[in-house]
Amino acid sequence: MILPSILSSARTAVKASCPPGSIAVDGTLGNGHDTLFLAECVGPSGHVYGFDIQQAAVERTDTRLSEAGQRKQVTLFHASHHLIAELLPREAKGRIRAFMFNLGYLPHGDEQVITQPDTTLEALRTAADWLAPGGIISVALYTGHPGGPEEATAVIDWARSLPPQDYQVMWQQMINRNKAPSLLLLEKRTKKRA
Ligand SMILES: C[S@@+](CC[C@H](N)C(=O)[O-])C[C@H]1O[C@@H](n2cnc3c(N)ncnc32)[C@H](O)[C@@H]1O
C-alpha cells in the first residue's frame, strides 16, 4: 500500500518532531505500543510521561517497556490525562515535543471504560498550551463504539477553532470505509521574529 495508515502518519509526524533528548507525553497508555514508540524516539536522554485511568493499562505498559529495555526514561501515571498540568513538572511547559492521544477503549480490556469528551478536551487544551513550538499533537479518533462519534465531533470542532497563525491542523481519514478511524495532527507554529 502506498497511502499511509493513520498509525503510520501519526508516527512519522511524531518522530520528526521528537529527536533524542525530547520530552513527550502519551495521553492514553492502553497496551503501551505508543509509549514504547515515544520512549524509543526520545531515547535514554529524553523523557516520556504517560497517563491512563486503568491500572491494567499502566501494568501492561510497564511490562512492555521493561521487556524492551525502555523503562528508565518513562514516568507512568495512573491518572486521567486532564490532570497533565497538575502532574507534570512546571519546567516541561512549552518544551514538550509530542503528545499522542489514542482515544476510545482499552483493546482486550473493559470496553465500557472509554475516553470522554470533557476530559479529552481539557487534556487537549493543556497539550496545545504546553507544546513546544514545532511540536506535534496526534489524536486517533474512533467512531465504532457508543460515544465515539460524539467525542470525535467535539475534538474536530475544537481543532477547527484553533487560530491558524498559531497551529497547523490536519485531519486524515479513509473516506470510503464505514466508521473508519481518523487522525488529527496539530503542529504548533514557531513564532516569527517581529
Ligand atoms: C485505545 S486505548 C490506547 C491505546 C494505546 N495508546 C496503545 O498504544 O496501546 C485508550 C485508552 O485510554 C484510556 N483512557 C480512558 N479515559 C482516560 C483518561 N481520562 N485519561 C487517560 N486515559 C484514559 C483507556 O483506559 C484506554 O486504555
Give a brief description.
By secondary structure, the protein is α/β, with parallel strands linked by helices.
Q: Which key phrases capture this entry?
A:
alpha/beta; Rossmann fold; 7-stranded mixed β-sheet; 7 strands; globular; binds S-adenosylmethionine; single chain; 6 helices; 194 residues
Structure write-up:
- With 194 residues, this protein is of the alpha/beta class.
- The chain has one domain: Rossmann fold (3-Layer(aba) Sandwich), CATH 3.40.50.150.
- It has helices at 6-17, 33-42, 55-67, 84-87, 117-130, 148-160, and strands at 23-26, 47-52, 74-78, 96-102, 131-141, 167-173, 182-188.
- Helix 2 links the parallel strand 1 (23-26) and strand 2.
- The mean pLDDT is 96.
- The structure holds S-adenosylmethionine.
- S-adenosylmethionine (SAM) binds at residues 28, 30-34, 51-54, 57, 80-81, 102, 104-106, 113, 115, 119.
